[in-house]
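Figure 2 data, in text form.
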Amino acid sequence: MKKRLFIGLALPNEIKKHLKREMEKISPRLQDARVVKPDLWHITLLFLGYQEDEFLPAIIEALQKAGEAFSPPLIKFSHMATHPQKKPRVLWVETDQATAEILRPIKNLLEESVLASGLPLDPDIHPLRPHITLARIEERARIEVNPISLTDSFEAETLELFESILDANNGPEYITLQRFAFGEKTD
């Protein structure tokens, strides 16, 4: 049976609470957007698409390998804004550039490991732009949100394998299938 999978970072509750307060401030402008439920907010590192159950052990091994290879990364946010700027499709919170640089080798090791295992995966040709999707904007909607500077940060403790179950009536549901702690801190 195929599962729709991705690997990412879960957010601590304090971050979700702060982002929820920020969303409440701009909610009147989001009437033509599908707001993502806060319990679904995460940072995707690698989207795996639909994969057969037979590939789960290889994916879990790649997840464990990456978790053990890296110290817990410090995630710092930069701003909340719509993206792309011309015809926005999402409202997101983007990390700062230093965070993107920290997460890039983790994503690369994950991708290399799953590809080496024979997993059918299209290599991601887009540069990693770590972010949290807060809302999806309808195609013809005109939503203007001036960028909001954010200074939140957290140390990611785990790397997680999520299953995404799509439901046309109720929206997606994300289930954590496996979680591995990042390796020891190095000061």
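Caption note: The chain has three helices and ten strands.
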